[in-house]
Amino acid sequence: MASLKVIVRGSLKAMGVTLRNLFRRPITVMYPYEQRPVPRSWRAGGFALTIDPETGEENCIGCRLCEFICPSQIISVKMVKGEPRKNGKGATYAESFTLNFQACMQCELCVQVCPTDAIVMLRELHTPGFSREDLFYTKEKLLENGRRALENPELLSFTTGERIREWTSPKKGEPA
Ligand code: SF4
Ligand code: SF4
Fold it and tell me: Which of 52, 139, 157, 158 is deepest in the core (most CB within 10 A)?
């Protein structure tokens, strides 16, 4: 008999929880129709290669530091020599640049090590893609993302965004 009491009490308790939650506002949202703001430090939205806004030149000098530091070994860069840049950033370029986003752990080491702030991380939710091919970034795809980021700096993750804002600041290099 005691066990029947326990069962009834337990069932009533469970029904009480159900009833209480029935009238609560849902905490889920109907993504993609409704979207929560993306945190400023979110950095799983893919990558971009930046372009000098003044000269339109690629900032990547093909040095391969990002390739060497990447713990997942998913970056591959081939360097070539070319014409000296107008912005004084040398005369070497990335002939090819690939990044396999599938195995990226978002550690951001590649961004931090880059001497020319050429590689940045994005904070948008849509970019990464729906197929494996979509997650394989070629240089062209990364530069296209870089052009979009130049038009809309809000796409940049906070830390990388901060770096590109410093880099594009007209006060860069002046004494503090
Ligand atoms: S953020 Fe991704 S691509 Fe960059 S170093 Fe880390 S694992 Fe490699
Ligand atoms: S993205 Fe930066 S670190 Fe990587 S090859 Fe280009 S210049 Fe070097």
Answer: 157
